[in-house]
Amino acid sequence: MEMPSSAGRTEVMHEPRVARTTDLAESFARDGFAYLPNLTTPQDIAQIRALLDPLFERFDTLGERAVDLAGPRVPGVPPRSPEVNEAVILAPRLRQTETFKRCRNIARSLLGVPVGYQFDHAIFKPPHNKAATAWHQDEAYNREPIPLRSIHFWIPLQAATIENGCMQFIPGSHLGPKLPHSVVGKRQVGGTLAAQGVDDRTAVACPLPLGGASIHHPMTLHYTAANQTNEYRRAWILHFGAFGKFRHLLHPRSVAARMSAMMTPP
After folding, report:
1. What is the C-alpha separation between 248 and 58, in angstroms, rounded?
2. Bridge partners (DSSP) listed for residue 150
3. What pLDDT is recorded for position 4?
4. Residue 76's pLDDT is what?
5. Average pLDDT rounded to a whole number, residues 136-143
């Protein structure tokens, strides 16, 4: 099928296969992603909704934490892919949800070391938003001198389907290489990236029931289609990394980079 990209180009999309339940650790190591049909309860999802919905209701007051993934904001025009970054900072009670706690425990189990919160964001795609989230690797957003060592969780706040924009992955892409990425949507701070030269013929879609979640490696190529339904497609994304933020602060390469920057003349 053909879909408009966020840059206005037409991209040929192959019909994805649908993921099947397998052993979590085995699937993650082999494919770079896995999915959990029963991460949490409908009651916990309702609690998350109660904390995130008010943030999107005051979207225009959140400053640089509120962006449109589909491109720069146009005065008077609603965002096509509104995103709130670091929702946990704006709504600290998110840390008390079962979802937050269970994701942290799963990340600790998969990485085999203590983990901590690194980042989160929420994306609420409106009905018929006509804006896909392009294929990309999260590692492409990393500006640190060391690669990410983290587990990324995608938690839909309703059932996720191919029609409303569930996650899609390319198995094995976490093994590399990191593809070149280009900016396809400029915004106030930074831009939305899209990987170049993606072959999506092996793409796997991960539809999920309410309470389910998918997980992926920072190098795994992933994509979500535009929301083609009459309802919002809401998702909360959580990143837990090895040793939390201390790894980036204390790693010798990070320390050396900071010292070099301090010693470089302005």
Report:
1. 32
2. 241
3. 38
4. 83
5. 95
Q: Which residues of 210-227 are buried (b: 16+ CB within 10 A; e: fewer)?
A: ebbbbbbbbbbbbbbbbb
Model-level pTM? 0.86
From residue 262, how far is each of 116, 146, 255, 256 by CA, in Å?
28, 18, 11, 10
What three-state secondary structure class fits 116? Answer: strand
- C-alpha–C-alpha distance, residues 96 and 150, integer Å: 21
Asked if 137 and 218 touch (Cβ cutoff 8 Å), the reply is yes
Q: Name the packing angle between helices 24-31 and 98-111 (round to 10°).
A: 70
Phi, psi of 162 (to 5 degrees): -60, -35
With beta carbons less than 8 A apart as the criterion, state whether 64 and 86 touch. no
Tokens for 121, please give them: 């964001």
Rounded Cα distance between 87 and 236, Å, is 9
Residue 3's Cβ-count burial label (10 Å; 0-12, 13-18, 19+) is middle
Q: Tens of pLDDT along 37-72?
A: 999 999 999 999 999 999 999 999 999 999 999 988
Q: Give 3-state DSSP helix, strand, coil % of the chain, rounded to 5.
A: 30, 30, 40
Q: Which of 11-25, 143-157, 252-266 has the highest mean pLDDT?
A: 143-157
Pinpoint the alpha helices (H) of 32-145.
Answer: 42-57, 87-90, 98-111
CATH of segment(s) 2-263: 2.60.120.620
Q: Which two tokens stand for residue 161?
A: 């389907």
225-263: pLDDT as tens digits: 999 999 999 999 999 999 866 555 554 554 455 455 665
Give the domain ranges of the chain.
2-263
Distance, CA of 259 to CA of 95 (rounded, Å): 33
221 against 2, higher pLDDT: 221
Question: Residue holding tokens 């959140």?
Answer: 62
